Amino acid sequence: MIAQQDSHKIEARPFAKQEYTQAELITCVASRLLEDNRSVLVGTGLPMIASMLAQRSHAPNLLLVFEAGGIGPRIPELPVSVGDSRTFYKAVAATSMHDVMSACQAGYIDYGFLGAAALDAYGNINTTVIGDWEHPKVRLPGSGGANDVGSFCWRTIFIMRNQSTRTFQSKLDFITTPGWISGPGARERSGLPHGCGPYRVITQLAVYGFDEHTKRMQVVSLHPGVTLEDVQANSEFPILAPAHVPVTEPPSPEERRLLREIDPRGIVLGR
Amino acid sequence: MIAQQDSHKIEARPFAKQEYTQAELITCVASRLLEDNRSVLVGTGLPMIASMLAQRSHAPNLLLVFEAGGIGPRIPELPVSVGDSRTFYKAVAATSMHDVMSACQAGYIDYGFLGAAALDAYGNINTTVIGDWEHPKVRLPGSGGANDVGSFCWRTIFIMRNQSTRTFQSKLDFITTPGWISGPGARERSGLPHGCGPYRVITQLAVYGFDEHTKRMQVVSLHPGVTLEDVQANSEFPILAPAHVPVTEPPSPEERRLLREIDPRGIVLGR
Amino acid sequence: MERNIPILATGSGELVGWRDPDENRAWIRENKPRGLVDKRMSVREAVERFVPDGAYLALGGFGHIRTPMALIYEIIRQRRRGLVIAGKTAVHDIDLLIGGGCVKKVECAYAFGHELRGLSPAGRRAVESGEVQVVAELSNAAYQWRFLAGMMGVPFMPVRNMAGTDTFEKSSAIQIKDPWSGKPVILVPAAIPDVTLIHVPRCDRYGNAQIDGIPVEDIELARASRRVLLTTEQIVDDDEIRDHPQRTDIPFYIVDAVCEVKYGAHPTLMPYLYAFDEPHIQEWLQQAKTPQGAQAYLEKYVHGTADFSQYLELVGGAATLKRLEQIEQNKGRQT
Amino acid sequence: MERNIPILATGSGELVGWRDPDENRAWIRENKPRGLVDKRMSVREAVERFVPDGAYLALGGFGHIRTPMALIYEIIRQRRRGLVIAGKTAVHDIDLLIGGGCVKKVECAYAFGHELRGLSPAGRRAVESGEVQVVAELSNAAYQWRFLAGMMGVPFMPVRNMAGTDTFEKSSAIQIKDPWSGKPVILVPAAIPDVTLIHVPRCDRYGNAQIDGIPVEDIELARASRRVLLTTEQIVDDDEIRDHPQRTDIPFYIVDAVCEVKYGAHPTLMPYLYAFDEPHIQEWLQQAKTPQGAQAYLEKYVHGTADFSQYLELVGGAATLKRLEQIEQNKGRQT
């Protein structure tokens, strides 16, 4: 399954004086990245909601694919596992991990979502272990499907709701899943499929992309009220920034209405 | 599919003064080789009838498997193709070539049947070409599933209804499917699965096995009225024979009754 | 573990249909539809758009079973030339394409034969005269696993058959020393057909298709192929597909064209629906014994008809088809 | 083509569950039933006969979905020790086995986590204390393809993930130069579990089993495994299986034991039949926060019950199960 270790720590922390929550903002940003007539390998939690939001707004023909075998379902309500029956409800196909992962490896899947305990400047992530692998301080679940997503999907989107110097690390304890590894060409040299890799990182502070020349993380937009100093103060590694940094578009009323429709009980989004 | 190029040339040639036909004798001999509670990869024609006869006599729990995906059917009538609907009628599974061939490669299949245009002393066979491969005199269908049967099944049984110096050859124009290749250990050295290979050859003249030490063909039994001279006169290569050669047990009345039940119109057996 | 894996042997057959996995990924990203698009079109349009001269072509089904005949006739009718055929239990399909002059090369697991019905006169003649060239050999399982590698987007698949034979020697496979067991193991290269034709009992307008009975190797073959053209006995609403999502054998994003052609596998067998048209198959086998006969057959049934429905009339129309349905459906076979 | 294939990198993880294909073929020939044998037995007998201490064990289903809980509880009840677990989306299953003291080693694709429900207290504690050792890492797809290689009887499977990461470095895979593309490609070794436990909605007495919804990786996993123990919601007559042979996901010759255990996946979800028992899952997650709590849970629900039916009574019996059925079946899900 797509590692989403952080997503169980769900809190309803509204931004100061703003009507929307962090989770809503992040979800809306993620949703807008998903183009119509493309495919996305979906995890549970926010990625699920973002994908459903995309389908109900600008991308009605977005194909949702689940690593356990569900393809193109009509999701009746939020699944709690990427294998539960809601992931293949009225699906076009209820098939196997072999089939879905083969499609990923063969190049059929455009977007993949990842979360992580920690991430570095190149979008490599750790979901395996904090501390030493042989004698871990904290043992995390491991790759699950994360390495597969990061290896195969054309564009990987990271959702990190707790950006800090503890999660944006200069050096990871363990690289579970490849980002741009060590810079341009490193993925190809290592043997990964060509031309794919990290695309966006969405945190509670900002949206990031990766610099074309260095493949290091750079700011794409700052969430309302957040400064470049805030961003840098919450990262061990330096984050690049263009001369002019736009502000992230907040959730629209229509987006918020759809989010309440998708997660009426606030199971993931909080309330 | 299992190569059975010879089996369309079906003639009802009764043995001199005998009540049974060649085809009946061959089928009964083949049938008796199949032990109960074992599995057999079945081709069309005589192998099919031999397998059904085994099920109706001494081996009711013989598992019939077809390379195109039918597993354990209750055959309603003789199939004409190893993929036709009779091969998965009331089957325990109707699955794929990948599944069946994987089971073969993994060691689940005990017996396989093969026919051929030509065979050599080691039980290698040719179903690809007569003459030169680049400029063939006669182009035959190729391996089909024959190489898979000969590579994977624990014991391969050959049915050759037209033993002659043209079909029992010293040197094949093309080795389509491995027998014992060039003698003891040759299969293993070549990279084929260990411990499996040719088991019996059944012709219109005799039943053959393979000498333990040389892996060359040797007589197991002579059909009624056939001499060792007949056997040798109809082979380019010398055929080994033990001191005492038994006579092949002719079809019993019960076996012949069952054969008529299985192939009432004499489609394969002739009449 | 050692530093190198020895290559023990290399087949001399032509490498047919292999593509660099990254090149193919990029092609898929660019060309395969991920959204639900209505792909209904006529057989004529499907062949015009997706089957160029020289294409590496694979045919679904198995021998005389569920063979995509309507598309095959149309390829002959449109006089495609220079096709390279995946001879993966190619029987009636390849025989007609060869007879129609469409074929230049064959990679052969099984071709030029009709199982119990004997050898293929047209196919044999073409190979023996040099008109059609067999460029490589392999086995049925090996071909199937070439498609499995193609489906998976990996460059090759390990197999344990073919060793020690001329079949391996004339294949495009190589044999290496397995780094774990130290034993020889063969690697077959992935195969990625340019176009695959498959006939199914039902699919929706987007191409979500269900096969009744054995799928044989169509699951892997379809996924390995660049273009997949479906003919279907019936186009159903996608709600009907979604009611039984586990029955979907081919999902829509694999498919490029959906053509509704009832009886589209005639004269071959369509499991649970209609039987072989044995007299018609025999008519071809008899006619194909001479080049003139083969041409006469094709003039009458293919070039002499505008489309598959005219062909069906010519082979006896409703009466014939009803009879074939009765044979298949009255034998107590289940759905 | 070159004479050698360079090995570019070698993972340092322990090689778990690999067997020489020939050795495994010989074992299969000797030990797997090819005839229809009545394999019905109790869960107790199945575990006694087929799950030895130290076995390399894999669990079917996926996370909290279709998890073979009755067999897992029985393994704990019989105090098996030293198990090596295939951590292929191992969630509730492995957490209880670890809590029960049964586990010595884990090969980890996903373990010690409960997806949205958070980390696994028992699993984490055991790894962090050194009680349980993680001996290798890999990804979900890579594990699945290890089973595919096992099913196929080949020594390895090529994959294109994991490169450039510590996941690869701690795996038992190797990286070679693909002889066709010249690019690096990873080979994962085949995996052959000693025992696999799978819960299915229905099968016959011989083990012909059908799964409703997604089979996830159970098709490959079952075929790769030496011993396969099935629990089933219902044993049906084999005629019922034979009426829909295409629905058979696991054929009988793969199976060693058939145990009829209605609600055998409780408290996990059984698609189309019953929902997660969320309060019960939460009870475990709360209790497992301390070793004492975990022991108390196991004393009450596993060691304190003679079998699964007593356990079901303890978790609320018919009323609870009826509620879970209503949740799953009333949500408009199709069969």
Termini separation of chain C comes to 53 Å
Helix content of chain A: 10-25%
- The CATH topology of the domain at 21-140 and 192-267 in chain C corresponds to Glutaconate Coenzyme A-transferase
Average of per-residue pLDDT values of chain C = 96
The CATH homology group name of chain A: Glutaconate Coenzyme A-transferase
Summed up, the helix count of chain A is 7
General shape of chain C: globular
- β-strand percent of chain C reads 15-25%
Going by helix content, strand content and strand pairing, the class of chain A is alpha/beta
Computed structural class of chain C: alpha/beta
The CATH C-level name of the domain at 21-140 and 192-267 in chain C is: Alpha Beta
Helix and strand pattern of chain C: EHHEHEHEHEHEHEEEEHEHEEHHHH
Which outline of chain A best applies?
A: globular
The CATH topology of chain A, please?
A: Glutaconate Coenzyme A-transferase
Enumerate the spans of chain C where pLDDT stays under 50 for 5 or more consecutive residues. none
Can you characterise this structure?
Chain A has one domain (22-262): 3-Layer(aba) Sandwich (Glutaconate Coenzyme A-transferase). Chain A contains seven helices and 13 strands. Chain A has helices at 22-33, 46-56, 97-106, 146-152, 186-190, 228-233, 253-262; strands at 39-41, 63-65, 70-71, 93-94, 111-114, 118-119, 125-126, 129-131, 136-139, 155-160, 197-203, 206-210, 217-222. In chain A, the strands form four sheets. A seven-stranded mixed beta sheet of chain A has the order 2-1-5-10-11-12-13, with helices on both faces. In chain A, β1, α2 (46-56) and β2 form a beta-alpha-beta unit. Chain C has 13 helices and 13 strands. In chain C, the strands form two sheets. In chain C, strands 2, 3, 4, 5, 9, 10, 11, 12 and 13 form a nine-stranded mixed beta sheet that branches. A four-stranded antiparallel beta sheet of chain C has the order 1-7-8-6, with helices on one face. The mean pLDDT of chain C is 96. Classes of the chains: A alpha/beta (271), C alpha/beta (335). Chains in contact: A-C, A-D, B-C, B-D, C-D. At the A-D interface, α3, β9, α4 and α5 of A face α5, α6 and β8 of D.
